[in-house]
Amino acid sequence: MINYVFHLYIGENTARAQAAVSNLRFLCESRLADRYDIEVIDAVERPDLAESARVLATPTVVRVEPEPQLRVIGDLSDHERAAEVLGLPGDLVSGRRP
Amino acid sequence: MTRGGGDGRGEDGTLERLRTGIKGFDEIAMGGLPVGRPTLVTGTTGSGKTLLAIEFLARGILRFDQPGVFVTTEETTDEIRRNALSLGFDIARWEADGRWVFVDASANPREQVLTAGSYDFGALLARIDHAVGQCGARRVSFDSFSSIFTRFQDTGLIRHELVRIAAALKSLGVTLVLTSERLHEYDGLTRYTVEEVVLDNVIILRNVLRDERRRRTVEIVKFRGMPHRTGEWLFTIDPRDGFVVIPLGVMRPFRHASRTRVSTGNTGLDAMLGGGLFKDAVVLLNGPTGAGKTLTALRFACADAGSDESCLFCTFDESHGQLTRNAAGWGIDLEAMEAENRISVVADYPEAVGPEEHFLRLRHAIADMGPARVVIDTISSLERVISARALLDFVIALTSLCREREITTLITTSSGALMTPGAELSGAVELGAVSDVSIMLRYLESGGDIQRAIAVLQVRGSAHDHAIRRVGIDDTGLHIGEPLSEAGKLIPGGAVLAGHPPAAPEGTSED
């Protein structure tokens, strides 16, 4: 059952956008297995969607489900921080360096 | 992300200007903002940045049919709509017409922005680009450019992004106003000095308290490769006209000069002037207290009797009641004239408001009434409250307004520094240069008596009488008599007898 839905807004198909996509997929695979869905939205191709979601920075991840909506900007290269702010399950404390 | 392709250069390679349509601004910018380029408008809180950003778009829509995109990062779109409506700009209607598009980049208070890794502002640029394409925008206001970055902590990244965004905005091919916040009025340029470096065109708005008076100014700090007026220019935020830069001191070339002659209301004086005044003349009448200035001004105001023409009579010296009583003493019924809308008397305390406010009040009165004549009696009263430079600016602004509308204008001055021949103030010379006609009333010592004399010092574009003539005042008015035969002694300046030789009116005449 899918109970995590993410919208990932990317700028152009840059290295940073690629990094954000693979980082988000990695995080979801490792912590949510098959309970997630990711929609990648290119803000340059769909500025109207970026407008209605009021996205400024790219990449931006919006956790649409579950409530409350959460929003993280950046390429998610800092996995632990990304998992924490996106509220992904997992033993975050043990992953943190002393 | 390229659009339009224009870099704002005309065929001859010079940078083109976009007329903003903001009152007075294009004069100081010598034509307007650089086309297709961003201009940074920086100022402290409350300096009028947002209003300028709104007006930039509103005037474009109203006056030039140029659609606009408004990027808001601080205020919500509802707040902007509401503020604009108080100035008579119906943004909601323009949005419905597709002439105004918002890009809402304001912070969502319910949502915290967290960062994880590196990012850029590609989505915002894509949204602006989209909005520009949606309405075919020629103008973009971005309010405020700096605040969007203060929401994000990483200053190193922000600086890099500012450079990138400024470059991307240039490629949009639209003319942009970007606002940015400053902390101090006269200290450094902006919080992010990089903005100054990145942007070629920088304007500072200031809102300072000086001499216990709030003073708003606008200054163009740089306009790359383009001439502009230097220095700080006063502006006001007027509930009727919005953002008004008072280009005091900016004289427009006279495109048109009237050949129509009108009367001064005194046949003797008309004769001295070579047959009355040109309709667009600005007359400076100088004389000490009691020499007959107000009488001459009242006759001037009544000169169109029997026609539909009206006069705006502005007195800084007397109350409405005093002026009415004085006029009655010379057989002029001011109240009856007011009832017939032949004259409108504005009696203001000079101290009541600043010079820019006085100017705006007069401008509104002139616009509403459409007078054929304007009288200011006396301009010297303003000297008490404003500097000589500001007074000169006021006179220049007023006279250029009156000339434009072919209003015959009479300004009286008491024998203050401004008109005294040989006065050390540079303003004296300049005020003379602003006017077309200079008339002097003086007391005269002759055979132990004090008498009055009149001389016409200067009449542009016309021959005139060079004589100093005797003047008599009785209850029917001011009568111009014979030229002075023997050398009486003019009493220079005020009513005090002074030892130095009289002024030589002929010597200063230039016709």
Blueprint (SSEs and pairs):
The complex is a heterodimer of chains A (98) and B (511).
Chain A: E1 4-10, H1 15-32, E2 36-42, H2 47-52, E3 60-65, E4 70-73, H3 79-85, H4 92-95
Parallel strand pairs in A: 1-2
Antiparallel strand pairs in A: 1-3, 3-4
Chain B: E1 17-18, H1 25-28, E2 33-34, E3 38-43, H2 49-64, E4 68-72, H3 77-85, H4 91-96, E5 100-104, E6 114-115, H5 122-135, E7 139-143, H6 145-150, H7 155-170, E8 175-181, H8 193-198, E9 201-210, E10 213-223, E11 232-238, E12 242-245, E13 261-262, H9 267-272, E14 277-278, E15 282-286, H10 293-302, E16 311-315, H11 320-329, H12 334-339, E17 343-347, H13 355-369, E18 373-377, H14 380-383, H15 388-404, E19 408-413, H16 426-434, E20 437-446, E21 449-459, E22 468-474, E23 477-483, E24 489-491, H17 505-508
Helix pairs in contact in B: 13-15, 15-16
Overview of the structural elements:
The complex is a heterodimer of chains A (98) and B (511). Residues 92-98 of chain A have low confidence and may be disordered. The radius of gyration of chain A is 13 Å and the shape is globular. Chain A has 4 helices and 4 strands. Chain A has helices at residues 15-32, 47-52, 79-85, 92-95; strands at residues 4-10, 36-42, 60-65, 70-73. Chain B is an alpha/beta fold. Chain B is 31% helix and 26% strand. In chain B, the strands form 4 sheets. In chain B, strands 15, 16, 17, 18, 19, 20, 21, 22, 23 and 24 form a 10-stranded mixed β-sheet that branches. In chain B, strands 5-4-7-8-3-9-10-11-12 form a 9-stranded mixed β-sheet, sandwiched between helices. In chain B, a hairpin with an 8-residue loop joins strand 10 and strand 11. The longest helix of chain B is centred in the last third of the chain and has 17 residues, at 388-404. Residues 1-6, 417-429 and 493-511 of chain B have low confidence and may be disordered. Chain A binds chain B through residues 9-12, 16, 19-20, 23, 43-44, 47-48, 50-51, 54-60, 69-78, 81-82, 85, and chain B through 103-105, 108, 111-124, 126-127, 129-131, 148, 152. Strand 4 (70-73) of chain A pairs parallel with strand 6 of chain B, so a sheet runs across the interface.
